[in-house]
Amino acid sequence: MTHPDPAGALRQLFDAAVAAADPALCVPPHLPDLSSHTGRLVVVGAGKASAAMARAVEDAWPYKVGGPGDLTGLVVTRYGCGVPCQRIEIVEAAHPVPDANGLEAARRILELAESLGPDDLMLCLISGGGSALLSLPAIGLSFEDKQAVNTALLRSGAAITDMNCVRKHLSAIKGGRLAQAAAPARVVSLLISDVPGDDPAVIASGPTVADATTTADARAILEKFAVPVPPNVTAWLYGDAAETPNPGDAVFAAVETTIVARPQGSLDAAAALAKELGITPLILGDAIEGEARDVARAHADLARAVAAGEGPVQAPAVLLSGGEVTVTIRGDGGHGGPNTEYLLAMALALGGAENIHVIACDTDGIDGSEDNAGALIGPETLARARDAGLDAQAFLDANDAYTFFKGLGDLVMTGPTLTNVNDFRAILILP
Fold this sequence. Notes:
There is one protein chain. The chain is globular and about 65 Å long. By secondary structure, the chain is of the alpha/beta class. The mean pLDDT is 93. Helices cover 37% and strands 19% of the residues. The chain is built from 16 helices and 12 strands. It has 2 domains: 6-17 and 264-429, MOFRL domain (glycerate kinase, domain 1); 23-261, Rossmann fold (3-Layer(aba) Sandwich). The strands form 2 sheets. Strands 3-2-1-4-5-6 form a 6-stranded parallel β-sheet, sandwiched between helices. The protein has a 6-stranded mixed β-sheet with strand order 7-8-12-9-10-11, sandwiched between helices. The termini are close together. Helix 3 (50-60) links the parallel strand 1 (41-46) and strand 2 (72-78).
């Protein structure tokens, strides 16, 4: 079997993965039953998918306007990810480095939580990206302190779990503090997972989830990755007030948490489509982490083995994986994100190997901080680059994969997808 359009097939698989995490499909089945509810209902949320989640709530909500269970509230999402809602206010703010809009939205969300009583309910809509968007610093820290630490963490190569551990302990709202503010109200949290392992405490830094990490953990991460921090941040992390509410805290007795979409579900959807296309899928895992170029080299070795008839599946096959690889910025850095860096490193590792085609994209439609979801490579990528005067190794050394693929016209451009279940990678090996 040979596929007439390998790039088209890969794009179909990516689209299927994104569609599986559409808030319009995954949120409504998990809405709480409020048939006997008499108190207030406040909807809050944060993340790249939060506005689409809010719209899904409004579209599916069975209760009448002005009656028990009527909707009010506020969610904050990334610029470009807003969708119109009638009763839930949508605020757009910066990601991944917080801005004043995110700061003000987080302050207002915390005030809404603090206004609730024992008969009220707070419906929280949380997705990836919420950590940077809920940018309210702890008392005694400045917004500039948080921006500086966040920027340094993004450049350090730290995994998202490590970054969120630090963020929680510098926040007035993350690491369970939003649930703490809402107590004794009932809290229902609906989450779209973008983190390896689907730990609710890590998704958007767990604003309504107990935090098992400590200030000592946060300090160790900053030291491990040599992250420069302002002196007052260091001082704060040695104080008792920086500790977040931990598992067993009474404030979580009235908190219900449900993950409504996760990376594995998207990989399963892509695998099902691959079978329909006559391609054997092999899911390598939904929680792959590591340096982008290191993961790329390992995946290239596996793809070569499959192409040689020595791998765990026979061609035609597609190797699917999720998770979040990282990029350590070297020198001044260039333009790109983990998916394009992975692809550029993989193109070099494959060296033009025949019949191997690869897509890597972020399911939110934004790879790093650029305007692309990711890119595509094939057997001819390096030859085309040489013809265009593009030195692939030099671009990789400069962390400038975006510019490389833009020069080839091989970027995948989707715009914001309004969901986020982390990175998606598919390696298609044809006979």
